[in-house]
Amino acid sequence: MNEKKGINSGSVVAGIDVGGTFTDLILIDTREGSDMGPRVRVAKTPTTIENQAFGVVNAIRETEVPASEIGLIVHGTTTTTNAVLERQLARTGMITTAGFRDIIELGRRTRPQAYGMTGTFIPVVPRNLRLEVDERMDAAGNVLTPLDEDGVRAAVKALLDQGCVSLVIHFLHAYANPAHEKRAAEIAAEIWPNNYITTGHALLSEAREFERGVTAAVNASVQPILERYIARLSNELQGLGYARDFLVMNGNGGMISAAHVAREAAKTVMSGPASGVMAAAFTARRAGVDNLITYDMGGTSTDVALVRGARPAVSNEIEVEYAMPIHVPMVDVHTVGAGGGSIARVNDAGLLEVGPQSAGAKPGPICYGRGGMEPTISDANLLLGRLNSKKLLSVDNPVSVSDVEAIFAKRLGSRLGLSGVEAAGAMLQIANIKMAGAIRMVSLGKGHDPRDFALFAFGGAGPLHAAALARELGIPRVMVPARPGITNALGCVVADLRHDFVRTVNRPVASLDVALVKSVLEEQRAEGEALIAEETVQPERIECVHTADMQFVGQTHLINVPLPGPEVDRDTLQTLFEDAYYKRFKVRLPEIRANLVNLNTSVIGVRADIDLASLIDPAGRVATLAEALNERRRVWFSGDWHDTPVYAREKLPLDAVIEGPAILEQLDTTTVIEPGDRAASDADGNIIITVGAGR
Asked: What's residue 38's pLDDT?
């Protein structure tokens, strides 16, 4: 028991992930007294869009475990991600260096569409709320113009008069010397009625004023939203009897106390996809697979990411949408608008399109019976026999397959010259092509051959499409975890504590002060360890990862280079960069010298492992494959119907080998094994599909 925080970090842990359609929960109970080992409970309830806290509470209630007995709740939320993407942001003002108010609007002068001539862009902070004050540092941190303190006071009062809730203080070279930003924040705090004051250097001590300014503006504009949500959720949990602190997932795949999370709210953007990637890396590592492409298809979108050496790729170069760079470290996830609820339509050119519009949780797909009338991917899977209409979750008023077929025929088939079934088959092909493109972006687009990876499929809809995608991309194996539909929630349970730091140096390696490198990296490590010491849950051990963002002198783009430790000399830095450059581009340019731009440190508090074997129930297993058979039904594959066995996955013998075509049904998802593929199970209950092995 951690007496300081009043939290039981031990026996009953609940991971909760809020998605666009469903809120997923996994609860692992390791209390003594059970002869069966850890007890696992899962819940999947509709996401309550009006207040996500209600969906979280509903999921906890569904487990039938009293909230007072839960020692720790770890929560992944889409609150900040949705706020950013939907531009439902708090009114925010900015105080910046005189002459530079338009930096966050000018950006990099790129275009929303690479080959388009038009496009729109709305800055996070509108121009009338960006005020200037006199101050100036040079790039070395020397004071050129003293801070106009009276000007700061006047600007703060003006922004308050205009109804601003949050404040950003963003000065030109504060990464080199933050003294002016710190003093301006002190002055603002005397007047500002709340603690929603963000200084650019505190969140991102990095050059490139556009990216730093946008990141700070996003942080300030989502702080009140996240804090309100955390307060609502805390109140709801207290009403259930859970009166302790809880942890919140960050976009970097680590966790932070709910008491501190709003301080750096921008770091929670993309926390939902990050938790799934962390669970995938953890699960695959236990199975002896270190290189994988994660494929998470939910109700609204599909997220893909690359994992090499059992470590997810983390980047601080992510642009959530056009001109919206959030340069805090995040798991490098690529998202496309193709989920179970993605809507299909025939456009004005007579072409079939799928997504990005989604039916969401309300009204949802047609088959949910909540009033949805637009054809979706889930409806197509139902119509083609891949989903069982009698086993869909959260169906209010069942809709017959014939009714779904009639809608497909009317809305799609009539315009394409196809039957309803053929239109559904075409829809799945289009969706698969779109998702395969996302996988190419994170693999081939970054110099990696998909054939060298396994495809890790999860989410409520991922295992339905994974085998087809693997065949399209030449990926030899597909892994489907024991609980695919709640993998993101599992990621909350297995994720570690993590803090990331960035510091701009921007010096040619040839003239670099290596003592400065050591000093910066050691300071970052010490700060991270101090932050972890404040957390409610203490890890088993602390790991530290150092990297450098480097480029050739005169180059624009950066390459992240792993460092062996804080003590590194110039020759080693040059060699490490050249090796990383060659690995990415297969070119060596030894005549050009390297430039060290940023030093990065990730301090990771590693938590105790969870035994994934506890996710399967050996008592429910049967002796033979035949005993696990639920039924046989017609399923559409490659333009034709196949008589296909449908198995209850939770009953499958762990040594079963299944020749495709076959369907595996379970509470949280359905797995499709295509004709010519072969599937087998491992000790943790993962299904391993070998593509083309049965041909």
From this structure: 60
Report CA-CA distances (Å) from 634 to 128, 388, 604, 645, 676: 62, 11, 49, 9, 17
Unique residue bearing structure tokens 């050691």: 522
| Pairing status of strand 72-76 against strand 247-249 | parallel
Sequence-distant (6+) residues with CB within 8 A of 460 are 21, 22, 297, 298, 299, 340, 484, 485, 668, 669
d(CA 167, CA 162): 12
CB 19 within 8 A of CB 300: yes
Helix, strand, or coil here: 297? strand
| Rounded Cα–Cα distance for residues 154 and 134 (Å) | 12
Interatomic CA distance for residues 365 and 377, integer angstroms: 8
* pLDDT confidence of residue 694: 61
| pLDDT less than 70: residues of the chain | 1-10, 32-38, 119, 361, 393-394, 396, 694-695
Cα separation, 403 vs 368, in Å, equals: 12
Supply φ then ψ for residue 544, to 5 degrees. Answer: -130, 130
490, 497, 540, 559: which is closest to 313 by C-alpha? 559
Q: Is the dihedral of CA 131, 132, 133, 136 positive or negative?
A: positive
The tens digit of pLDDT for each residue in 183-216 reads 999 999 999 999 999 999 998 888 889 999 999 9
How far is 4 from 80, CA to CA, in rounded Å? 29
Lay out the sheet containing 594-606: strands in order across. 39-46, 22-29, 12-18, 72-76, 247-249, 255-257, 497-508, 594-606, 541-552, 559-563
476-520 residue pLDDT tens: 999 999 989 889 899 988 888 888 888 888 899 999 999 999 999
Quote the longest CA-to-CA distance of the chain: 81
**Burial of 291 by CB count in 10 Å (0-12 exposed, 13-18 middle, 19+ buried)?**
middle
d(CA 285, CA 165): 45
pLDDT for the residue 393 = 63
- Give the C-alpha separation, 664 to 481, whole Å: 12
pTM: 0.85
